[in-house]
Inverse folding.
């Protein structure tokens, strides 16, 4: 059985990619298009990593991370995937906020946020303009000492309501807090909250199916249910990987597994300099998530109440409260039939941020109890917007940090990769070990669907460069 | 290789990596990014395409050399000469 999954495997590939998250998939596609032999190994039975979905009896289908992404996905999918994929991306127009400080609906773009800030929050137009321009001007190489809190304090002193509107969606999207660097906020904000929110029409299942088809067409050897146990390094150079007890040789490894796990477990600290090991150990992970999936009974309908609802009964935005087990700040993602054209089904997914430690150590009995409580409080909160939703729900279940860990092997169930410092460590990996690369959610700015895809391309470029160098030197040796 | 030829190569690559870019009226001495709405991913694609087509390697620190068509010509001239001679 185990041997089957590696049947007809070659003994050597130019590149082995560990993990089929969006970064791994995209890097695989780019490298195959560059002409390299690529093997992609995924431990789960589905490809996609956190870009995933699941089905339940009764005709239910749930998307895990298809809540919304920035407009840049259209361009990236067209360039690094196919026109067909990019053509399926559509805008979500009904984004709602409902909390004790304000209730509003927005199209989630610069123009509309400007209108809201000026007309409803009474902020001076010049200030709004300056804020947007400052955020847009930020890049990775700028000052990293200013915090997001300080950025808001500079432009909107004392305005916790403005901070909430500008910060809450970003905190949901990547787990960042007011203490994270202002530049990580500015970069994500400019991508995300300036030209609307988009999703993939057809659902995550269709997207991953299309990507898989494309990978096959481009000659990538893709295998699932293959857990890579080890990356083999000799004399500071990558030699291959061990998976299902089998050695597979390669010139380069691109790990899409969690950054910290890649360094500590797949390779082992002993292969790195003490200085780098120290840096890697110091990388902080982002928080995890909880979700409640509610499938509506066949034949029942839901009225349109918006596409994405950022709701809370907490008095103010509070990064700590946002992850608490008794959190009230949650995003409801509404899936109407047009999410999957041809379907007549409705689903609602509630997402909240969460701490690994609050969930990891519960006894099985307490764990089930806490899951049930999460489900109960979530349905109760949803009843405010859809009063008869309880009767319409046919299937409900919850996912917790433990669930995310189980399916993606992300350390501590981290759903948004690492804090800012993780990006430098990820980028420095090839300087430590020849032929070793990492791509995947890191550094806040490289997380989310778009961040993961783009980082996959950025790292594929480095891998391509290395493969060209090795091919050249081998060519010279042969001639 | 003449400067004009190098500029044509760059414009040709831009037309491939950024199909929406309007490449017919590009000024040689103005930053490409400002004229064509190119982002950092587009520049990365240009780098990859130059490697693919001409086996030219551009280190990350030297990406700014690709800012304008003029700077592209000055920077890539010797590199292209080296690979075509080899
Ligand atoms: C609840 C939730 C909601 C989200 N909502 C959104 C959203 O609305 N919009 C958005 O843009 N982003 C969202 N995200 C974030 C987004 O999904 C992720 O940032 C992105 O999908 C991460 O991709 P990745 O390439 O970093 O890797 P991952 O998705 O983490 O994939 C890594 C893959 O590697 C595999 N793997 C790990 N170790 C091994 C091993 N040793 N051997 C073989 N395979 C291995 C894993 O099984 C996994 O498939 C959400 C995330 C979560 C969890």
């Amino acid at each position: 059985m185990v041997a089957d999954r590696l049947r007809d495997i070659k003994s050597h590939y130019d590149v082995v990619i560990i993990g089929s998250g969006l970064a791994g998939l995209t890097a695989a596609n780019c490298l195959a298009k560059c002409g390299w032999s690529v093997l992609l190994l995924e431990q789960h039975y589905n490809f996609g990593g956190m870009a995933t979905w699941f089905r339940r009896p009764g005709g239910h289908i749930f998307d895990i991370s298809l809540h919304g992404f920035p407009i840049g996905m259209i361009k990236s999918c067209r360039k690094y995937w196919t026109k067909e994929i990019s053509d399926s991306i559509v805008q979500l127009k009904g984004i709602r906020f409902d909390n004790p400080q304000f209730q509003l609906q927005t199209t989630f773009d610069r123009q509309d946020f400007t209108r809201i800030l000026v007309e409803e929050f009474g902020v001076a137009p010049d200030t709004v303009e300056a804020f947007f321009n400052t955020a847009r001007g930020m890049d990775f190489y700028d000052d990293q000492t200013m915090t997001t809190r300080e950025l808001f304090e500079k432009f909107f002193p004392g305005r916790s309501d403005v901070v909430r509107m500008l910060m809450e969606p970003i905190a949901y999207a990547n787990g960042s807090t007011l203490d994270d660097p202002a530049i990580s906020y500015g970069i994500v904000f400019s991508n995300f909250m300036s030209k609307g929110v988009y999703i993939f029409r057809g659902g995550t299942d269709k997207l991953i199916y299309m990507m898989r088809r494309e990978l096959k067409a481009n000659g990538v050897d893709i295998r699932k249910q293959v857990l890579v146990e080890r990356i083999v390094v000799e004399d500071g150079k990558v030699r291959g990987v061990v998976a299902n007890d089998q050695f597979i040789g390669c010139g380069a490894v691109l790990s899409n597994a969690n950054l910290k796990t890649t360094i500590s477990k797949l390779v082992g600290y002993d292969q790195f300099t003490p200085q780098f090991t120290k840096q890697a150990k110091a990388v902080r992970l982002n928080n995890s998530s909880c979700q409640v999936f509610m499938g509506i009974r066949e034949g029942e309908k839901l009225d349109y109440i918006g596409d994405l609802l950022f709701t809370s009964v907490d008095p103010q935005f509070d990064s700590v409260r946002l992850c608490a087990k008794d959190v009230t700040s949650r995003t409801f993602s509404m899936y109407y039939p047009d999410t999957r054209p041809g379907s007549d089904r409705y689903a609602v997914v509630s997402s909240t941020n969460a701490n690994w430690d609050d969930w990891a150590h519960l006894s099985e009995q307490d764990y089930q109890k806490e899951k049930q409580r999460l489900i109960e409080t979530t349905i109760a909160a949803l009843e405010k917007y859809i009063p008869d939703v309880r009767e319409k729900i046919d299937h409900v279940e919850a996912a917790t940090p433990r669930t995310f860990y189980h399916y993606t092997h992300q350390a501590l169930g981290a759903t948004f990769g690492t804090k800012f410092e993780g990006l430098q460590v990820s980028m420095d990996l090839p300087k430590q070990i020849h032929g070793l690369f990492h791509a995947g959610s890191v550094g806040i700015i490289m997380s989310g669907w778009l961040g993961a895809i783009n980082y996959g391309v950025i790292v594929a470029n480095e891998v391509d460069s290395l493969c060209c160098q090795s091919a050249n030197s081998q060519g010279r040796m042969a001639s | 290789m003449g400067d004009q030829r190098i500029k044509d190569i760059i414009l040709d690559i831009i037309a491939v990596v950024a199909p929406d870019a309007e490449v017919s009226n590009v000024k040689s001495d103005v930053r490409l990014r400002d004229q064509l709405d190119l982002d950092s991913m587009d520049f990365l694609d240009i780098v990859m395409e130059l490697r693919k087509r001409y086996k030219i390697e551009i280190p990350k620190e030297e990406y700014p050399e690709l800012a304008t068509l003029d700077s592209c010509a000055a920077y890539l001239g010797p590199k292209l000469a080296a690979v075509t001679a080899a």
Notes: Residues A 18-24, 41-44, 49-51, 64-65, 67-69, 227-228, 256-257, 289, 291, 351, 404, 408-410, 415, 440-441, 447-450, 452 surround flavin-adenine dinucleotide (CB under 6 Å). The interface with chain A takes residues 17, 41, 44-45, 47-48, 51-52, 55, 57 of chain B (CB under 8 Å).
